[in-house]
User: What shape does this take?
Amino acid sequence: MGIFRQDGDMVSLLCVEDDQVARSLLQKIISRKFPAMKIHSAENGVSGLELFKELCPDIVLTDIEMPSMNGILMASEIRKINPKTEIMILSGQEKDRYESDCFKIGINHYLNKPIEFKEVFKAIENSCASLVPNNRNFY
Assistant: This one.
């Protein structure tokens, strides 16, 4: 059973990560934990933003440091398009380095690398709860 929005569509997630191995691993593990969630991926901020415009996912999980367009700039552009999108930042950088930018953009979750999947799952569950408050069936 999936997680459904008020309009009846399934909740979807866009994973933006320039490291192909990390991106594949994230997709694989998230899809195992949330098998009915629609999961899309992009390899950098430019392609992530284009895919966001095309698919309008509910949740965006993005790395910060990427070629072409970093995750902070992409998240800022996404906020202009849809302020209700849940955005999760995944970074190997110290939070203090980007805290001001994240606060201005309204980042919902800041997750550190190396990835702790329990934290990623909890952030996704919290994002789903924010998107669909009365639907607690996450998997």
In short: The chain has a mean pLDDT of 88. The first strand starts at residue 12 and ends at 16.
